[in-house]
Design brief:
mainly alpha
């Protein structure tokens, strides 16, 4: 996922829950994960112009004086695609930022998209943990603080993997319960439509 894709994901994700005043968008995007990703004002303004031009966002009046952005149906489709896009295994912080942004905006995604993204995040977390374990064994520095740092990072990666796995299991269970309720309602609906014999 490119920097542009991450900015679009964040912008469309922020506007998915309803109109947001344009004056608040810069602060909202810069507040998502500031220790890893802090888009500049010009990058955000460019994303706003681009997504309005592409009809992913539309400008609406908010409180009669402020202009706000809201997500269009076309924007909802683009958001779903951005949520499903694989950030890849690039080096550095880019995949971590993309994973975090995708995770932040799963609330309104379809159940299939949520399951797909969580499964991919879990696989990536497990792979990062395995790769870290191999790399840390090759670390020539056996000093006290190096070992402390490696241990702390190992525990962090394990916790991330366990947490994503737990969230995925909870989502699958909730989807199964929802499907069971739907199936029961369908059966009851068919039972009430059975013609009576006279």
């Amino acid at each position: 996922m490119t920097g542009r894709g991450m900015t679009d994901l964040a912008l469309l994700g922020i506007t998915q829950q309803g109109p947001i005043a344009i004056t608040n968008i810069v602060q909202a995007l810069q507040s998502l994960i500031p220790e890893l990703w802090y888009p500049t004002v010009s990058v955000i303004e460019g994303a706003i112009k681009r997504n309005v031009a592409e009809l992913n966002l539309c400008i609406v009046e908010l409180h009669s004086t402020d202009e706000a952005l809201t997500l269009t149906p076309k924007g909802e489709e683009k958001l779903e695609l951005l949520l499903k896009s694989d950030p890849g295994d690039l080096e550095g912080v880019t995949p971590v930022v993309a994973d975090a942004l995708q995770f932040c905006f799963l609330d309104t995604a379809s159940a299939k998209t949520v399951e797909y993204v969580l499964r991919r995040l879990k696989d990536r977390a497990d792979r990062r943990l395995a790769e870290f374990s191999v790399r840390s064994q090759r670390c020539p520095n056996k000093g006290h603080f190096t070992r402390l740092w490696i241990g702390m990072e190992q525990r962090r990666l394990e916790a991330v993997s366990q947490l994503i796995g737990s969230i995925n299991r909870d989502c699958v269970a909730a989807a199964s319960r929802a499907q069971a309720v739907t199936n029961t309602a369908d059966i009851l609906g068919r039972m009430t439509n059975v013609p009576t014999l006279r």
